[in-house]
Specification:
eight-stranded mixed β-sheet; alpha/beta; three-stranded antiparallel β-sheet; 11 strands
Length: 505
C-alpha cells in the first residue's frame, strides 16, 4: 500500500513487515497456534502404554440418526458394519437414511456410483444380537433411557466374544452404571459422538472406573481411524461439553426473561463468533430432550449439571409439540416450529413465543429492562468457563486445552478465540472473570431467594481453582510459568503435586 501510495518498493516492504509483525504477535495468532498444538496434545494420555486392539468389524446397535451416522463413519474408512435395530421398519428407515447420504453425494459429483454401492455392501442390517458374534467393537446408540441401555447391554454381554469392546454413545447417563451390567466392565467405555456423527468432528471418549488400558487405547485409536478430534474425558454428569453448555443455555433463557430479545441474544452470540445462537441451538437439538427426562423422573423442577431452569417457556413449547426443527406445522407452512418458525433455511422468531415470554415475565413479577450486549456475553460465557474450571478441579479433563478442543470442534466456539479456557485467560483475564462471577452470583442468589418462581443455581459461584489461579497471578506466578503453558494448568499441576493425587482419567 505504501508503494502504491507513492512510496518506494522498499518502503512498501517495510510497511508490510510491520503489519505482519502485528498479526504474528496478536492474541488471535496466539489462539490459532494454541488450537494447532492442542489438537495434537489431546491424543496424548498420561500413563497409557497399552497397544490398541485391532478393529476389523464393528457393530452398531440402533439405526436412528446417531447410529446411522456412526455406521457411515466406519464404512467410509472401509470397516464392515453390522447394524441392528429392534424392528424391521426402524431398520429399513435407518438404511434408507444412510443410503440417502451417499446417493446425495453421487448426485453432487462427490462420490462415484460404484463407490456408493461398495459402501452399502459393507453394511449388514439385522434384527439379531447373534450377528454381533464376530465384531471387535460394539457401539450402542439406543434412546437415552437407562433401563433400556442396561437391557441391551445384558444382551450384548451374551452374544459377543470376550475381547469385544462394548461402548455406549450416551450423552450424559452414568456409564459406570451401564457398564456394571457386564461380566467384564473393563471392556466398556463411553464413545460420545456428536450429531450428525458423519459430519461433526468431535468425539468425547469417556473413561469409566474399570476401563482397561487397552480399552482406552483402542477407543482413542478408533477416533484417529475415523479422523475425529478425539478427547478423553471423565465420567461426570454431561461429561465436558454438555455439562458446560448447560449454564450457557440457562442464562440465555434468563436474560430473555429479564428483557433481552431473542434476536439480541442470538446476534450477540453470533457476533462473539459462535456458529449459532443458543436459542437456535435449542431448536436444532430438540427442545424436548431434557423435558422428556424431567417427565420420566417425575419431577418437572429437577435440575442436574446438564439441564436447569428456567423451564416455563420450554415446557409450554413441548406441551404444544413444538420441539424445533423436527416438528413441522403444516397449518402455517412451517418445516419446523420451536422458538423459531422455520421455513426451509429461513426462520423467524415465533410471535406466540414472544407473547408467552411476556406472560411468563408478568407471572413472575418481572418488568422488562434493557440488557446490554456486554452483560449477555458475560452471563452466557463466564459461567460456562467457570464450569470448565470445576471440571479440571474435579479431575474430569486432563488439561485445559482438551476443553478448548471440545468446544471448538463440538459446539462451534470460534477458533480465533482459542476455546473458552484460552479466551478466559488471554482475552478477558482471570481476575475479571472472577470479579464478574461474584457480581452475578449475588444477583442470582437474590433472585431465587426472594422470588419463589425461580430455582436455585450455583453456576456463578467461582470455582476454587479459578480463585487459586487469580491468587497465583497476584503473587507473580505468571512470570514463572513456561511459555505456552496456561496458568490454570500450571496451578493445577502444582496443586496435584501438593496433594499427591491424580485425575479421574
Amino acid at each position: 500500500r505504501a508503494a502504491c501510495g507513492g512510496g518506494s518498493f522498499q518502503e512498501g516492504v517495510a510497511v508490510e513487515g510491520k503489519e505482519f509483525g502485528k498479526l504474528l504477535f496478536s492474541v488471535q495468532s496466539k489462539a490459532m497456534r494454541h488450537v494447532f498444538f492442542s489438537q495434537r496434545m489431546a491424543g496424548k494420555i498420561a500413563g497409557l502404554n497399552a497397544p490398541p486392539a485391532p478393529i476389523k468389524k464393528v457393530g452398531i446397535l440402533g439405526a436412528g440418526l446417531m447410529g446411522g451416522g456412526i455406521a457411515v463413519c466406519f464404512v467410509q474408512k472401509g470397516v464392515p458394519v453390522v447394524l441392528k435395530d429392534a424392528k424391521q421398519e426402524w431398520l429399513d428407515a435407518g438404511m434408507k437414511n444412510i443410503v440417502a447420504i451417499w446417493t446425495g453425494q453421487v448426485k453432487r459429483g462427490r462420490l462415484s456410483e460404484q463407490k456408493a454401492k461398495d459402501y452399502i455392501a459393507l453394511i449388514k442390517p439385522t434384527l439379531k444380537f447373534e450377528d454381533f458374534a464376530d465384531c471387535d467393537l460394539i457401539i450402542e446408540a439406543v434412546p437415552e433411557i437407562m433401563s433400556l441401555k442396561k437391557e441391551v447391554f445384558l444382551e450384548l454381554d451374551k452374544h459377543t466374544k470376550p475381547g469385544t469392546l462394548i461402548c455406549t454413545n450416551t450423552s450424559g447417563l452414568n456409564i459406570d452404571e451401564i457398564a456394571s451390567t457386564l461380566k467384564d466392565p473393563s471392556r466398556c467405555m463411553g464413545t460420545h459422538f456428536f450429531s450428525p456423527a458423519n459430519v461433526m468432528q468431535l468425539l468425547e471418549n469417556v473413561r469409566t472406573a474399570k476401563a482397561s488400558e487397552q480399552t482406552i487405547a483402542t477407543c482413542m485409536a478408533m477416533g484417529k481411524l475415523l479422523s475425529k478430534q478425539t478427547v478423553l474425558v471423565g465420567n461426570c454428569d454431561g461429561f465436558v461439553g454438555n455439562r458446560m453448555i448447560s449454564p450457557y443455555a440457562s442464562e440465555a433463557k434468563q436474560v430473555i426473561e429479564e428483557g433481552a430479545t431473542i434476536e439480541q441474544v442470538e446476534r450477540v452470540a453470533e457476533e462473539f463468533g459462535m456458529a449459532m445462537g443458543p436459542m437456535s441451538l435449542g431448536d436444532l437439538v430438540g427442545q424436548e430432550l431434557f423435558w422428556k427426562q424431567r417427565k420420566a423422573a417425575g419431577d418437572m423442577n429437577k435440575q442436574t449439571k446438564t439441564y436447569m431452569g428456567p423451564y416455563e417457556l420450554v415446557d409450554w413449547l413441548c406441551e404444544n409439540n413444538r420441539f424445533g426443527l423436527k416438528t413441522p406445522d403444516p397449518k402455517i407452512g412451517a418445516t419446523g416450529r420451536g422458538i423459531f418458525i422455520h421455513k426451509g433455511r429461513d426462520k423467524m422468531v415465533d410471535p406466540e413465543v414472544v407473547a408467552k415470554i411476556a406472560e411468563i415475565r408478568q407471572a413472575k413479577g418481572h418488568k422488562a429492562r434493557q440488557v446490554t450486549d456486554e452483560e449477555i456475553v458475560e452471563r452466557l460465557f463466564f459461567p460456562l468457563i467457570n464450569e470448565g474450571f470445576r471440571i479440571l478441579e474435579e479431575g474430569f479433563a486432563q488439561r485445559s486445552s482438551d476443553i478448548d478442543i471440545v468446544y471448538i470442534f463440538g459446539y462451534g466456539f470460534p477458533p480465533v478465540k482459542g476455546g473458552p479456557m484460552f479466551y478466559a485467560e488471554n482475552y478477558v483475564g482471570l481476575p475479571k472473570i472472577l470479579e464478574r462471577l461474584k457480581v452475578y452470583a449475588a444477583e442470582a442468589k437474590n433472585r431465587y431467594t426472594t422470588n419463589k418462581h425461580y430455582l436455585p443455581v450455583d453456576y456463578f459461584e467461582p470455582s476454587q481453582l479459578l480463585i487459586d489461579c487469580v491468587q497465583a497471578e497476584q503473587m507473580g506466578m505468571k512470570a514463572k510459568v513456561p511459555p505456552g503453558v496456561p496458568m490454570v494448568d500450571a496451578v493445577l499441576d502444582f496443586k496435584k503435586k501438593q496433594a499427591k493425587g491424580g485425575s479421574k482419567l
